């Protein structure tokens, strides 16, 4: 905007004036020519030149930021004592005085944003988000941890527990067991809802350690899914109709295993997690009801073991590090970031081979004062190495997609609220 | 809910319930990068209230429209992230398959 205004301003001025100001060298020659009496013809030529002149051709119109400011904008410099340039410059007019626009353009974002998958397994994933703001990457992380729903045991009906583990501790342990089922197939249960096949999963646990036998470790494999709902009868008044089916703690209208999603793929908890240990003669009999919830309410509903990101490390050797120094550098790095290459004639030089491994320990800077001038450790501000560890209910890539969808829904909610 | 937007439409505070840093910080980031915005920030008045206040001051446009545009922008960005991510995962899967096939053929 500023540049365009300047351009039109110059156009309205006397072209001769601009010419003499912008091309001082030329104007000197031209004034001399004038003095020599060649004025007329030269004048018209000069005017033509001024008309075809464009300010965009001038070299001093800034197209991008000067390198040191661009560096501050895009990198965190990790010095020995503390990191600097850690702030993110968001304001659109931050660089207006330098003629650089810092505003967000959607097409610019779309052209520059990249995702690179590094590792993808059943319940673990690492990928790079490149060209995105920390605020948005952090929103994804927060949503993954606290706002994606899963199923978790919320109510435990204990019929018998003679083990050494107390009822409430046992119930808490049960709550933390991940349940392998797609939470999108279920509904939330609000306070006044009754438990039905759409919002509750029921498990039964009945284990007894035989007298005279060894101690028994109760694992989650013992939790049996009850697709027909609770089997514990509710206490009813004696005058109620005795012929009707006894009411239980849930009111399922149909069996869950009739649903196509579960018929071949029964709901189960994560296997091989110890729930309790029983001594001879001890017994646990209980029923556990799992409902849908989010991690904000209780961490047991969090679908990720953890989700985190870190900025891409960038290590630069500011001067050539050779021979003994190179070997010293390679030895000091505990994560083997550096390598040695032969540069001929028996000389060796240190190279940065694995910058991603850098943990920011800054051991290499601690070698001595001169090393701070040789090695520069930085972080790229818009490159995030994102890691998601799923607890098992959903695959990590589905989790991320769902997290992005939730942020979209939030935006949509605000838009509808405002219009 | 919109506060203080009766006289001058260009300055307003929006109070969003059931939201926290997740949305507020992301919206603040897109708002700040909008050239029409002169000031923007958010606060959570009390940690036990699920409420966040977003302050928007603009150069003249109605703050409500500017906030709406920013949300729209953020939504479109999310959509792009989602499609790019899906494509990256697909690419990774196919390249993995190709690699597995190459290993098999060597044996």
UniProtKB/TrEMBL annotation, chain A:
Q: What is this protein called?
A: DNA-directed RNA polymerases I and III subunit RPAC1
List the SUPFAM superfamilies hit by this protein, alphabetically. Answer: Insert subdomain of RNA polymerase alpha subunit, RBP11-like subunits of RNA polymerase
The organism named in the record is Citrus x changshan-huyou
Q: Name one Pfam family in it.
A: RNA_pol_A_bac
Q: Where is this region: Disordered?
A: 229-263
At the highest ranks, the source species' classification is: Eukaryota, Viridiplantae, Streptophyta, Embryophyta, Tracheophyta
Please report the stretch or stretches of sequence annotated as the DNA-directed RNA polymerase RpoA/D/Rpb3-type domain: 124-417
Q: Which PANTHER family match?
A: DNA-DIRECTED RNA POLYMERASE (PTHR11800), DNA-DIRECTED RNA POLYMERASES I AND III SUBUNIT RPAC1 (PTHR11800:SF13)
Query: Where are the compositionally biased (Polar residues) regions?
Result: 239-263
Q: Which UniProt key words apply to this protein?
A: DNA-directed RNA polymerase, Nucleus, Transcription
Q: Which InterPro entries match?
A: DNA-dir_RNA_pol_30-40kDasu_CS, DNA-dir_RNA_pol_insert, DNA-dir_RNA_pol_RpoA/D/Rpb3, RBP11-like, RNAP_Rpo3/Rpb3/RPAC1, RNAPI/III_AC40, RNApol_insert_sf, Rpo3/RPB3_RNA_Pol_subunit
Q: Which GO terms describe its molecular function?
A: DNA binding; DNA-directed RNA polymerase activity; protein dimerization activity
Gene Ontology CC annotations of this record: RNA polymerase I complex; RNA polymerase III complex
Kindly state a single biological-process term from the GO annotations of this entry: DNA-templated transcription
- Which family does the record claim for this protein? Belongs to the archaeal Rpo3/eukaryotic RPB3 RNA polymerase subunit family.
Q: Where in the cell is it found?
A: Nucleus
Principal location listed in the UniProt entry: nucleus
From TrEMBL, chain B:
MF GO annotations: DNA binding; DNA-directed RNA polymerase activity; protein dimerization activity
Q: Which SUPFAM superfamilies match?
A: RBP11-like subunits of RNA polymerase (SSF55257)
Q: Which UniProt keywords apply?
A: DNA-directed RNA polymerase, Nucleus, Transcription
CDD domains of this UniProt entry?
A: RNAP_I_III_AC19
PROSITE patterns recorded: RNA_POL_L_13KD
- Domain (DNA-directed RNA polymerase RBP11-like dimerisation): residue spans on this chain: 12-83
Q: Which protein family is it in?
A: Belongs to the archaeal Rpo11/eukaryotic RPB11/RPC19 RNA polymerase subunit family.
* This protein's name: DNA-directed RNA polymerases I and III subunit RPAC2
Organism equals Citrus x changshan-huyou
Q: What is the lineage of its organism?
A: Eukaryota, Viridiplantae, Streptophyta, Embryophyta, Tracheophyta
């Amino acid at each position: 905007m500023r540049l365009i205004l300047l351009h039109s301003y110059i156009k309205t001025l006397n072209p001769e004036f601009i010419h003499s100001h912008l091309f001082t060298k030329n104007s000197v020659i031209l004034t001399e020519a004038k003095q020599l009496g060649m004025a007329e013809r030269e004048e018209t030529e000069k005017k033509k030149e001024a008309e075809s002149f464009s300010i965009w051709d001038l070299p001093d119109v800034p197209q991008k930021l000067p390198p040191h400011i661009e560096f501050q904008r895009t990198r965190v410099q990790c010095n020995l004592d503390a990191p600097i340039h850690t702030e993110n410059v968001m304001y659109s007019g931050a660089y207006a005085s330098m003629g650089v626009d810092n505003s967000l353009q959607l097409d610019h974002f779309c052209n520059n944003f990249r995702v690179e998958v590094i590792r993808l397994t059943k319940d673990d994933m690492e990928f790079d988000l490149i060209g995105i703001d920390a605020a948005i990457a952090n929103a994804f992380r927060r949503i993954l941890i606290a706002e994606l729903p899963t199923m978790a045991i919320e109510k435990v009906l204990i019929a018998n527990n003679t083990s050494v583990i107390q009822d409430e501790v046992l119930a808490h342990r049960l709550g933390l067991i991940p349940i392998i089922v797609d939470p999108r197939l279920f509904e939330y249960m609000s306070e006044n809802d009754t438990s039905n096949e759409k919002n509750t999963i029921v498990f039964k646990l009945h284990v007894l350690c035989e007298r005279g036998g060894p101690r028994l470790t109760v694992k989650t494999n013992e939790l049996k899914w009850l697709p027909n709902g609770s089997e514990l009868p509710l206490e009813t008044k004696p005058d109620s109709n005795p012929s009707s089916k006894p009411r239980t703690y849930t009111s399922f209208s149909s069996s869950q295993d009739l649903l196509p999603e579960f018929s071949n793929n029964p709901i189960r908890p994560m296997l091989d997690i110890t729930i309790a240990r029983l001594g001879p003669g001890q017994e646990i009999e209980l029923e556990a009801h799992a409902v849908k919830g989010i991690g904000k309410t209780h961490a047991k509903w969090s679908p990720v073991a953890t989700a985190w990101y870190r900025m891409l490390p960038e290590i630069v050797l500011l001067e050539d590090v050779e021979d003994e120094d190179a070997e010293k550098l390679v030895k000091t790095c505990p994560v083997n970031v550096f390598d040695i290459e032969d540069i001929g004639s028996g000389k060796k030089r240190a190279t940065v081979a694995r910058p991603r491994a850098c943990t920011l320990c800054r051991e290499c800077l601690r070698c001595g004062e001169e090393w701070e001038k040789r090695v520069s450790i930085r972080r790229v501000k818009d490159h995030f190495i994102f890691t998601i560890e799923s607890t098992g209910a959903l695959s990590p890539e589905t989790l991320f997609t769902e997290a992005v969808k939730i942020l979209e829904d939030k935006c949509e909610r605000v838009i509808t609220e405002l219009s | 809910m919109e506060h203080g937007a009766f006289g001058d439409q260009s300055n307003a505070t929006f109070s969003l319930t059931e939201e926290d840093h997740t949305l507020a910080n992301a919206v603040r980031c897109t708002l700040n990068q909008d050239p029409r915005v002169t000031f923007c920030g958010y606060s959570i008045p009390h940690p036990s209230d699920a409420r966040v206040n977003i302050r928007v001051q603009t150069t003249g446009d109605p703050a409500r429209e500017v906030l709406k545009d920013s949300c729209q922008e953020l939504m479109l960005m999310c959509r792009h992230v989602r499609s790019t991510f899906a494509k990256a995962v697909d690419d990774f899967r196919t390249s993995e398959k190709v690699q597995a096939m190459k290993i098999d053929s060597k044996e």
